[in-house]
Design goal:
The chain is mainly alpha-helical. The protein has one domain. The chain contains 8 helices and 2 strands, in the order ααββαααααα. A two-stranded antiparallel sheet has the order 1-2. InterPro entries: Mpo1-like (IPR009305).
Length: 170
Amino acid sequence: MSSYFRRQLSDYVEYHRDPWNCAMHVFGILFLFLAAILPLSLWPITVFGIQASAATIAVIPVLVYWFLLDFALGAGILASAVVLLSTAAVIVGHTTTTGMWSLTAILIVVGVASQIVGHRVFEGRQPALVDNPTHLLLGPMFVMAKLFIALGFRRDLAVIIQGQPQGAAS
């Protein structure tokens, strides 16, 4: 884990102490990620003779960023991204364009609302990205880190997120 990621995560955690806010973020981040890739899944692109969607191409730079921050968390997010990209492809393949745009709008509204409710109602403070826009990209890393910790992995992250000493049980 890089010192940059450690500092960013430490700062991000200060905005996400309440468990209900964290739960709201899981849904909000998943919904917003799906909403971002859904319309892009409509456009096929051929790169070096390989057929992909604009969604897949658009996700690659942010996946590289997440891998650079922390390889294991990046790999977890890659697995999640594959599931969400596949879900988007299925939705696009089985709905009308109007249906897809309607679902995108609903996902955005619900995703943003869950973030706002999480921060205003449960956390009692503004979202982290208001103070630091780069935190927009830390949300998925935070959620994946919480999952790794819950599964008993990454005590180094538990020190930052939960304040536990490295030798303590997760």
